[in-house]
Design brief:
- The chain is α+β, with helices and mostly antiparallel strands.
- It folds into 2 domains: about 70 residues; about 70 residues.
- The protein is built from 3 helices and 5 strands, in the order αααβββββ.
- It has a 5-stranded antiparallel beta sheet with strand order 3-2-1-4-5.
- The longest helix is centred in the middle third of the chain and has 37 residues.
- It starts with 16 loop residues before the first helix and ends in a 12-residue tail after the last strand.
- The N terminus is likely disordered.
């Protein structure tokens, strides 16, 4: 089904654990690499005033720093790729209407001791009869009013593993005070 793009035009992804991990690894890796470069540039002074194998110090710092930078870059790449896929799916405008049949808590995530809720949306392909189950992003309030309703799920028709549950346009504007 081809439809219009979302009313608000904004896709809410939030900050994922992958984003935070990438940021921390890039930051710590950058610091270690910087110190490794500083130590490598001052190796002659370190050899003159130090004892033992001081050439290992820049090597250790550079190895740790570049390793952390590499892992952080991989995490950032996968996070950016997922965000780009979601943007493309929404931009293309192909969606199905899926029924919200379950609201479950995601106990693998805790923010201030609270686990978010996830919408479980079911869609049965009318041609093949295949049941597709889509999960929304983490929602930090209980969206009881959506249970039993239909929400848009933007999909890539070639690969239904690429999707975005548009819960934002179905949920009323909620402000917690």
């Amino acid at each position: 089904m081809k439809g219009s793009v979302m009313k608000s035009g904004k896709i809410k992804n939030g900050i994922s654990v992958l984003d935070i991990s990438a940021l921390v690894l890039l930051l710590v890796g950058g610091i270690f690499t910087l110190f490794g470069i500083i130590f490598a540039c001052n190796i002659t002074q370190m050899q003159a005033h130090g004892s033992g194998n001081v050439t290992a110090i820049p090597t250790v710092f550079l190895t740790i720093g570049l390793s952390l930078l590499g892992i952080g870059a991989v995490f950032a790449f996968f996070s950016a790729r997922k965000r780009a896929m979601i943007r493309q799916v929404v931009k293309d405008g192909h969606y199905v209407m899926a029924e919200v049949l379950n609201i479950r808590q995601n106990f693998s995530v805790h923010v201030n001791g609270i686990s978010p809720y996830v919408l479980e949306c079911h869609y049965t392909d009318p041609v093949t009869g295949t049941l597709h189950v889509f999960s929304s992003r983490n929602l930090f309030f209980y969206p009881a009013e959506l249970l039993g309703t239909r929400v848009r799920v933007y999909v890539d028709p070639a690969d239904l593993d690429h999707y975005y549950v548009d819960a934002e346009n179905s949920i009323p504007d909620v402000r917690l005070h």
